[in-house]
Amino acid sequence: KIIILDFGSQTTQLIGRRVRELGEYCEILPYNKFPYDDPSVIGVILSGSPFSVYDDKAFRTELDRLRGHLPVLGICYGAQFIAYTSGGSVEPAPSREYGRAHLTKIDTTSPLFKNIPVGSQVWMSHGDTITSIPEGFKTIASTDKVAIAAYQVEGEQTWGVQFHPEVYHSEHGTQLLRNFVVDICGGKQDWTAESFIESTVAQLKEQLGDDKVVLGLSGGVDSSVAAVLLNRAIGKNLTCIFVDHGMLRKNEFRNVLHDYECLGLNVVGVDASEKFFSELEGVTEPERKRKIIGKGFIDVFDAEAHKIKDVKWLAQGTIYPDCIESLSITGTTIKSHHNVGGLPEKMNLKLCEPLRLLFKDEVRAVGRQLGMPEHLIKRHPFPGPGLAVRILGDITPEKVRILQDADDIFIQGLRDWDLYDKVWQAGAILLPVQSVGVMGDERTYERAIALRAVTSTDAMTADWAHLPYDFMAKVSNDIINKVKGVNRVCYDISSKPPATIEWE
Ligand code: XMP
Q: What does this protein do (predicted)?
């Protein structure tokens, strides 16, 4: 495997995903936690960082224990760090370099640049630049502005690149990573959905034996794939519980329950909407809504799970990005997303997380390989508290009905216009305002709906989706004509940051 040492860059996870896409297993670890004793490591990548190498607070790692022992590739800060600690100079660039650049010179004999043509576009994002490299270092690529865009340490498998090969805008970035991972490190590229399923099913059988396992389904991709994988390993010893808190999408509970049954899962559907509606009555504060729903979910789930005799394990669809130990650089919580936090402790069950090594796109690939239907696999992310955080202000069954109807028109429209798979996530939001309108000869004073659709790769950053005007006109018309109580539709054109995807 490849180890990616994280120095706090925004794109560290992207490096991990690119390496996995090459069929090579990798793990992301904090910069100071390299597993020196692990013989399966075949190479190391050092990520970028928000710090400058000469900052007092800059993250450092013991390079002499890596260099010369394993192939090392430094990206951005990683490259600067290797050069700087060997006596090179790194200085603030005259102007922060951000965006596209082209490699005007490349050492085409260098294995790192195999099959990468001169002129190839790369993505730069740095405030500092390497102004001189130490003796024994050799420049192997340059751009117009950056003389030392890439280097190799002579006689050593140690490399540095100033640009970011992991981002899509770096045209031959994947080729560069392949050159490093496969040619330089000797990666076997044997990490596939098929091999993952085979080894995980075997491990689960071994780990769980005849034990009973309970799993909470949400309708989302992760918990669904976890369930199907476990079902393959232990069959009827797995019981899935799907709780309807009353704030799912229109008909979602019924449809998804049906999907699960078709997949052969042993699933119990619990309609607990009344409990949730009564607990949420009059609550307007977003974090309180999340807490009430989180706790209510645990109560319902716990009661259901107790009906199963001798259950020993709680399975969850936790995926790799939730497990990566993050370096706390700012340390503020914007929203609390962990709806089921506290569940394992309360239930006194052992935890089984069969997807904890996978990135989202790998979860989808595994789901496909397991024969799950495409509409389950490609389903947009949906927040655990559901429409509760899309109804601004207090929640009533009537408001949920209005929002479900509007949301359904929007989502169905996206599907009909072939736009559903082009956006990361979409939904409607019920605003806590009324506005004046006119229908026929009548004055109306009704609610406003906001539509939100975003493009993203990981929900960390997002842009509003530039949906066609004709589509928006049709959806707006349909909502106002068909959903009683709504007379105005707006489209949210904020990016994240500074906005977030959900309104609450
Ligand atoms: P934000 O609004 O923080 O959302 O930009 C990022 C992603 O997280 C989802 N989200 C949630 N998911 N429980 C969840 O399970 C929550 O409380 C929650 N809040 C936001 C959101 O839908 C988006 O995909």
A: Catalyzes the synthesis of GMP from XMP.
225 lines ligand 1 (CB under 6 A): no
Tell me: is residue 142 an annotated ligand-binding position.
no
* Nearest-10 Cα torsion for 383, 386, 389, 394: -170
Tell me the C-alpha distance between 406 and 451, whole Å.
Answer: 9
Residues 291, 294: Cα–Cα separation, whole Å: 5
Q: Which residue has the tokens 């009344």?
A: 274
Catalytic residue among 24, 26, 76, 504: 76
Which residue reads 């609610």 in tokens?
447
Tokens of 293: 């729903």
Ligand 1 centroid to residue 383 C-alpha, Å: 5
ipTM of the shown complex: 0.98
Spatial neighbors of 73 by CB under 8 A, at least 6 apart, are 43, 44, 45, 46, 112, 159, 160, 161, 180, 184
Residue 221, marked binder: yes
Mapping DSSP onto H, E and C, the string for 462-494 reads EEECCCCHHHHHHHHHHHHHHCCCEEEEEECCC
Average pLDDT over residues 246-259: 96
Helix, coil or strand: residue 407: helix
Residue 499 near ligand 1, beta carbon < 6 Å: no
* CB 496 less than 6 A from any atom of ligand 1: yes
Q: Position 320: which residue type?
A: Y
CB 66 within 8 A of CB 44: yes
Indicate if the pLDDT at residue 150 is higher than 90.
Answer: yes
Is residue 166 part of the annotated active site? The answer reads yes
Show Cβ contacts of residue 166 under 8 Å, excluding neighbours closer than 6 positions: 11, 14, 15, 17, 18, 75, 173, 177
Ligand 1 centroid to Cα of residue 459, in Å, is 8
> pLDDT tens across 86-126, in order?
999 999 988 777 888 999 999 999 999 999 999 999 999 88
Query: pLDDT tens digits, residue range 486-501?
Result: 999 999 999 998 999 9
DSSP output for 39-85 = TT--EEEE---SS-TTSTT-----GGGTBTTB-EEEETHHHHHHHHH
Sorted by sequence, the CB contacts under 8 Å of residue 493 that are 6+ apart come out as 464
Tokens of 482: 């068909």
CB–CB of 139/112 below 8 Å?
no
pLDDT tens-digit readout, 380-412? 999 999 999 999 999 999 999 999 999 999 999
Residue 489's pLDDT is 98
Cα torsion at 77, 82, 88, 94 (round to 10°)?
-10
Task: Kindly state if the Cβ of 459 falls inside 6 Å of ligand 1.
Answer: yes
Of 166, 362, 502, 504, the active-site residue reads 166
Q: Confirm whether residue 342 is marked as ligand binding.
A: no
CA–centroid distance, 491 to ligand 1, in Å, is 19
Distance 402 CA to ligand 1 centre (A): 21
